[in-house]
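Open question from group meeting: does this chain pack into something compact, or does most of it stay loose? Before anyone orders reagents, we agreed to write out a predicted structure and look at it together. Recording both the input and the output here so the notebook holds the full record.
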Amino acid sequence: MPGVLHSERLWPSPATWLLVPLASALVVLALLPLGTAVAGTAALLVAAAAAALLVRASPRVEVSTSSGLRAGRAVLPGRFVAGGEAARGARARDLRGPRLDARTHLCLRGWVDGVVLVELDDPQDPTPAWLVSSRRPEDLLAAVLAVSGRAPGAGGPGTGAPGAPGAPGANGPAGG
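Structure tokens returned:
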């Protein structure tokens, strides 16, 4: 794919996929008194529906030189990116929870630990940032900064470089 700097699909974890046979087994147990044919047919339908829902709930996250960041159906042109931060573990939980601005655009999946906070610079948009799940948050952030014309870790405002003025978390809690 020409011009694509980063692409990933936020597939559910293997543990999440275990819900499909579990749901089918519960249907079999509930409908077995009606007969094995009814229970088996219903279990197959439930398994297909559950698998389809998990696939549908797995957005594609992509960064391309032509359109910028695409998270699910939403698109963010690179010219509106002011900076960002890649996070995992406790810092990612912090960004998803207590430090989350309610106006932030979200493309989060609970089965993916890493996140990228992309800060925006668009006076026409009240959305201050995007928070996007990623299994490779450092790669996603580097691609987003590349299409925005900003160098990763340059230390400018909002680049997420440690101690950078304006870096998320550098000056206390968000909004404070």
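Observations to bring back to the group:
The first strand starts at residue 4 and ends at 9.
Helices lie at 14-17, 19-31, 36-56, 89-96, 137-148.
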